[in-house]
């Protein structure tokens, strides 16, 4: 769940670096080929627009000279050029969609790899440095980044191309402004071009000043929207528990709080958008006054024909549209900047390894070696002092102690999930398996859930059936290929028995159990331990448990307390 009280991080130019990796990847040549093709079609489209401007002047001058036959003769070439222009735009749009999807898929694969590497997904939720709602950043932000970047970037390139092409036209046909001021004879070549450019750039500066805070407001809005989705997902996943507690009122209050934050921040978004839109609308309505003012010298000189006006108006409109790209796309740019900001933050967090003093060293064979191990909290306070411990192969060790003594934290340190503290651990991590108290059961077929984390084709049908039977889940054998949300179908006890069935399939050399039978009755608990030791008689077993009845399945007991760890042999 997101932490909504976190301040909005400042926008930085470094946030734009998240755009670069794809263009340096193994797919870059195909991507660059598509991009060059798209830009080339954009350039051709601009040149066709310049041609249309010339055609307009010729056509209207001919029309107002009442040369009907000449006008009709101009129409076929217009139709051909119109078809060519339409075809280029359709192809350009198709190529843009292809490039957008390739970019999104590549980015998503990279982010998923980082998210699922080195337990990054775990530290994002449980570590000191967190990023809210990683699911939204991977599923939504990456998709929006590729779409918005390509659309805005290609529009910007087309705007530059349009500006350069029509600036020449406006400079050429606009002529020179010549006047006398206080005895000075002043000549301004290309005055229409300069007048148009300066007026639009001034408006752009005003817009940036008025709408600047919109970036931070959009960032917060995405954050709060994701909070609401996460809260609703919590209700969906824990519907039974909420129903038993009668927690509808509490959930309604929690969801209302999320909605209140959305509404409060949305008022800021509306205020800043209103300010930006006010500038844009005033500009849109008043920009034609600039053109009319620039045409006054030609009107006074009686040098303006309808055909010339049509061409000047076309050049002015195209230069205006190219220069006002920033104005028209300001709110979209604000959205893109907030997306890049979120992705950059996610990138920094997911690639940053948590700092900790516990060293974890994998070895191919041998016993479990723990040396000078101290478990601390993230704030530096002490949880437990383990010291030195050697667990030979085949030993069955039960870890006991009061709640909060550090039993589960010790297993997390052995699994590499807890790094706060000091000391070192080493064992054959490749052939080890950890069973947490709350088992994870992925949605899909029961065979997939049983085989997890291996793929469903890893084990033979007979092995899967035998594992279910051994875990006292024989009634599920006929449902191995049934597709369902098994995490909702199976009871907590059945989920824990399914976890043991995975052990019977995987047959690890070392097994760590963190209260992995807490949801079972004594008979099922004893049955699972009995079958575990019968099927894996040489397994090294480390169990965190509270039930004294489990001592008979272990040969040693480690008791954790504030004074440290004591080991005793069980008879």
Overview of this protein structure:
There is one protein chain. The protein has 571 residues and is of the alpha/beta class. The protein has 2 domains: 339 residues, ABC transporter type 1, transmembrane domain (ABC transporter transmembrane region fold, Up-down Bundle), CATH 1.20.1560.10; 213 residues, 3-Layer(aba) Sandwich (Rossmann fold). The protein has 17 helices and 14 strands. The chain has a 6-stranded mixed sheet, with helices on both faces. Strands 3-7-4-5 form a 4-stranded mixed sheet, covered by helices on one side. Strands 1-2 form a two-stranded antiparallel sheet. Strand 11, helix 17 and strand 12 form a beta-alpha-beta unit. The longest helix has 53 residues. The protein is elongated. It starts with 27 loop residues before the first helix and ends with a strand. The N terminus is likely disordered.
Overall mean pLDDT? 82
Computed structural class: alpha/beta
Under the CATH scheme, which architecture of the largest domain would be assigned? Up-down Bundle
In the sheet with the most strands, the strands line up as: 8-11-12-6-13-14
Rg of Cα set: 35 Å
CATH class of the largest domain: Mainly Alpha
Number of alpha- plus pi-helical segments = 17
Residues in helices, as a percent range = 55-70%
CA-based shape: elongated
Biggest sheet: strands, sense, closure? 6 strands, mixed
Q: What is the CATH homologous superfamily assignment of the largest domain?
A: ABC transporter type 1, transmembrane domain
How many β-strands, per DSSP?
14
Domains (count): 2
Low-confidence stretches: 1-7
Strand content: 5-15%
CATH topology of the largest domain: ABC transporter transmembrane region fold
Gap from first CA to last CA: 47 Å
